[in-house]
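Support reply, case 0932

Customer input (verbatim):
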Amino acid sequence: MSDIVQYLLSFAGVIGSLLGLLWLLKRWQNQGGWRKRTGADHIEIIETASLGARQKVVLVRFDQQLVLLGVTPSEIRPLHVGTQVPKSTEEWLRRRQP
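Our regenerated output:
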């Protein structure tokens, strides 16, 4: 009987160690892995809006510039680049017309 108890405790110890290691690796990966993050991040996702099942619009800040991206399963296309984001779609269309 003591052999079974010893086996179960050893098994629980191995499984617990593996789960603990996986948790530490995931936490380490989320903090940047091998490279140290110094200073502020240069890319920031400001807002995301879904347009359909597989299409969306993403507003990204890169340094001091704002980029509005159209994202589909096959491509990512910049829709607007500037320091100010248009207040509406109509304003964006007016700015793009020559």
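We compared this against your earlier run and they match. Two observations from our side: Residues 67 and 81 are 5 Å apart (CA to CA). The longest strand covers residues 43-50. Please reopen the case if you see a mismatch on your end.
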